[in-house]
């Protein structure tokens, strides 16, 4: 049964003199607990598609359903993690993490306990009273992950959350995020330009093409890779085989822009 469904979603950006067709006829379905990646060149509409799923951008036509219910902008079921962590520098780490419950005016005292537990689970023990300026980029993104998870969203949207990090930190966070989301049985959609990241983290990869943004092909990640942590996946023989297939699909679309 589909958990998230996009049914013929199309989106146009309008200006005073013209319009741009950003997305054309996007249809897909994602199961609960599944991790999928949207992969494609700049300008193919990956981030726009995430914004539509989040209810931030209203699509021109088509339908988006979460558990058979139309998505709304105020839906707490959606968690959004971006490339930048957007932590408030004047607030402590714990205060930053608890922004969501504060916005929703939750007074449950168990929320603070849960926040501290999540910080501990991602390796951030003893920093609740520190400020973001004292943390590394990787630590800040872990705080952003906890802030997102604290609201207990049904689905997480990850818009290139590791792209601003150094490679070693990026690999460590891939492992952490993948392990954490599996432990909580969270459904997730990752936007990335990185073929290796998509293969290492996702169950399925939706390759997109640009002008207009469309899904050109879907790759199923072999079960042998899905059972491993992202860092280990890169060492598996089937990793390179899938990498080459995805690369060829992207190259073919870049070489045939009129198709």
From TrEMBL:
It comes from the Bacteria. The keyword ATP-binding applies. InterPro entries: AAA+_ATPase (IPR003593), ABC_transporter-like_ATP-bd (IPR003439), ABC_transporter-like_CS (IPR017871), ABC_transporter_ATP-bind (IPR050166), P-loop_NTPase (IPR027417). Signal peptide: none annotated. Pfam families: ABC_tran (PF00005). Residues 4-235 form the ABC transporter domain. PANTHER family: ABC TRANSPORTER ATP-BINDING PROTEIN, TAURINE IMPORT ATP-BINDING PROTEIN-RELATED. This is Aliphatic sulfonates import ATP-binding protein SsuB. GO terms for molecular function: ATP binding; ATP hydrolysis activity. The keyword Nucleotide-binding applies. Keywords: ATP-binding, Nucleotide-binding, Transport.
């Amino acid at each position: 049964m589909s958990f998230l469904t996009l049914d013929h979603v199309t989106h146009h950006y309008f200006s005073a003199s013209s319009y741009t067709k950003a997305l054309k006829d996007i249809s897909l379905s994602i199961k609960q607990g599944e991790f999928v990646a949207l992969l494609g060149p700049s300008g193919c509409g990956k981030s726009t598609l995430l914004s539509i799923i989040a209810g931030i951008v209203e699509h021109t036509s088509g339908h988006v359903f979460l558990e058979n219910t139309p998505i709304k902008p105020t839906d707490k079921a959606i968690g959004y993690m971006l490339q930048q962590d957007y932590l408030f520098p004047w607030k402590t780490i714990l205060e930053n993490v608890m922004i969501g419950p504060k916005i929703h005016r939750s007074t449950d005292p168990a929320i603070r306990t849960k926040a501290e537990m999540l910080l501990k689970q991602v390796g951030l023990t003893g920093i609740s009273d520190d400020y973001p300026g004292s943390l590394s980029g990787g630590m800040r993104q872990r705080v952003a992950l906890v802030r997102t998870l604290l609201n207990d969203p049904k689905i997480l949207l990850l818009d290139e959350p590791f792209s601003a990090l150094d490679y070693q930190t990026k690999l460590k966070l891939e492992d952490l995020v993948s392990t954490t989301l599996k432990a909580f049985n969270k459904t997730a959609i990752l936007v990335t330009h990185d073929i290796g990241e998509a293969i290492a983290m996702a169950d399925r990869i939706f390759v997109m093409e640009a002008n207009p943004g469309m899904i050109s092909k879907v790759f199923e990640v072999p079960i042998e890779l899905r059972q491993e942590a992202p860092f280990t996946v890169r060492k598996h023989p089937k990793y390179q085989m899938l990498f080459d297939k995805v690369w060829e699909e992207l190259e073919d679309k870049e070489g045939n822009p009129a198709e």
